[in-house]
């Protein structure tokens, strides 16, 4: 009887750890996407106001935020990973440019936000 109890407890603990591992990846992605959407919103306001200093400050933070969970996205949602990458790199580059191209950067940032919202919907 003691062996059976030990075996049941071991299986239960193993299952709990497995499930916790799955949800932590989803949670990591959800938290990361939320942070990036906040940043793209902040970037949008800076672009609209023409505040190049703020754009240069905020834009590059997207790369660090993305790198914290991009591997999980690449494994689970390759199509959205590629879509986000398509708009992320030019958005960051545009935010670091010597001269602010409001129209182009605004469009890139909007497309990035849309891709992130798609990912957010998939991870709910």
Explain this structure to me?
The protein has six helices and no strands. It is mostly helical. The longest helix has 48 residues, at 2-49.
Low-confidence stretches: 11-22
Q: Classify the secondary structure makeup into a structural class.
A: mainly alpha
The tally of beta strands, per DSSP, is 0
Question: Count of DSSP helices?
Answer: 6
Structure at a glance:
The protein is an all-alpha fold. It contains 6 helices and no strands.
How are the elements arranged and paired?
Blueprint: H1 2-49, H2 52-58, H3 61-67, H4 70-76, H5 78-96, H6 102-122
Notable traits:
124 residues; mainly alpha; Four Helix Bundle (Hemerythrin (Met), subunit A); elongated
């Amino acid at each position: 009887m003691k062996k059976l109890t030990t075996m049941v407890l071991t299986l239960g603990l193993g299952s709990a750890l497995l499930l916790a591992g799955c949800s932590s990846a989803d949670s990591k992605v959800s938290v990361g996407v939320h942070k990036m959407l906040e940043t793209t919103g902040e970037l949008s306001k800076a672009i609209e106001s023409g505040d190049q200093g703020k754009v240069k400050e905020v834009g590059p933070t997207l790369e660090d935020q993305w790198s914290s969970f991009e591997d999980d996205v690449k494994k689970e949602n390759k199509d959205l990973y590629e879509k986000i990458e398509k708009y992320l790199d030019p958005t960051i580059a545009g935010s670091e440019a010597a001269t602010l191209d409001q129209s182009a950067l605004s469009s890139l940032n909007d497309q990035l936000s849309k891709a992130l919202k798609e990912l957010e919907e998939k991870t709910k």
